[in-house]
Predict the 3D structure of the following.
Amino acid sequence: AIATAQHFTYVFYNEIDRQKLLREKDMENRMHLALGDDEFVIYLQPKQRLEDGEIGGAEALVRWIDPVRGLVPPDEFVPFFERNGFIIEVDLYVFDRVCAMLRRWLDEGRPVVPISVNMSWAHLRNNDFLEPYDRIRAQYDVPAELLEIELTETMVFANPELLIGVIDDIHRHGYRCSLDDFGSGYSSLNALKDIDVDVLKLDRAFFSDEDADNEREWNVISSVIDLAKKLELETVAEGIESIKQSAMLKEIACDMLQGYVFSRPIPIEEFEALLSSGKEE
Ligand code: C2E
Ligand code: MG
Ligand code: MG
Ligand code: MG
């Protein structure tokens, strides 16, 4: 009986691996064409300023609108593209679309807020990783202060010395820089003494699913916010789903919130409408 069970487990995992491999092979075959065919689309998730409830910025998040599979979320292709290097092209495409959008807002006299983009660690293998970013930004003549580059906490753990240099480069090129997913994994508070970013994005791991009155939890969150303030970092709480959490965050003076309670990631046109409606009132 034991042998049979093991046999089944073995077959089961192999089938999953096999399907994953086939999916990845399929993505590999189609990714270049998909980029050319505009199948990668940018969604924007607003960040809400807690002080006045207004939109203080947005994060650009990529989706793959596949003619066969429909809307594919980034978790299903970003990790694979990070391994095969294609993420570099996707990130630059996202950056290009964001710069084009900001140029249009500026030209049309629309309300403008800073936009953040995610930068994969894969770029960092190249010493001149900011050169293509600068070229795109110059092409659209967008002020660098309107652009924020999100680096993830995993990079801190992987290579803190490299990261310190990378943040320095990003600043020298004029971009704002944030540390994404802070608190999701291995980062220690001690690392913050060297990580000279502008913005700390608290991962949703800090916030439990239920909006339970967890006093210990909120003590931890407010201490991290206080520490960030002492270090003159702006704070953004990610993955906030309840009004109660939002009220608590305002109370402990977190600067911004990004979460479903305010808005899910939305298409650019929807974001523009939201931004304009807010500014008219
Ligand atoms: P991230 O950069 O930490 O982005 C935040 C993720 O949290 C987004 O998932 C967003 O939809 C989700 N989120 C926001 N508010 C809530 C909430 O209230 N509840 C829940 N459950 N989730 C919320 P998304 O868009 O699926 O992206 C997942 C990850 O994929 C991103 O995490 C980022 O690491 C990566 N990613 C997305 N776009 C890009 C890109 O253009 N380039 C690179 N390199 N990575 C990207
Ligand atoms: Mg991010
Ligand atoms: Mg994040
Ligand atoms: Mg994340």
Notes: The chain has a mean pLDDT of 91. Residues 181 surround magnesium ion (ligand 4) (CB under 6 Å). The CA atoms of residues 157 and 186 lie 6 Å apart. DSSP finds nine helices and ten strands in the chain.
